[in-house]
Write a structure and sequence with these properties.
By secondary structure, the protein is mostly beta strands. It is about 15% helix and about 35% strand. It has one domain: Jelly Rolls, CATH 2.60.120.
């Protein structure tokens, strides 16, 4: 990882798309996505997807701020989550 560390914040993607690489694996952000971050140790790297610049807005949060988001499975940058699950099921013989 590149060692980029972030404060506790919300990152709201306004336009463009990125692929993030973290210690938890890669995921993508697109317009309308809101990312909650508390990356104080591991760091991350990213790369632009497509030609459009990544425009975003940050909301820096203090430690007492409640974040009412529910965790969801990350959207993968290439192929998507459904594609990844389908490939795993095909390799193991498991079906939906």
């Amino acid at each position: 990882m590149g060692g980029i560390q972030t404060p506790r914040q919300l990152v709201i993607t306004l336009s463009g798309a990125l692929e993030f690489m973290t210690h938890d694996g890669p995921f993508s952000l697109r317009a309308g996505d809101i990312l909650f971050t508390e990356d104080t140790v591991a760091g991350h790297d990213w790369r632009l997807l497509g030609e459009q610049p990544w425009r975003r807005m940050y909301a820096i949060l203090d430690q007492a701020t409640a974040v009412p988001f529910r965790p969801v499975e990350p959207r993968l940058a290439a192929g998507g989550l459904k594609s990844r699950k389908a490939n795993a099921a095909a390799k193991t013989g498991a079906g939906p």
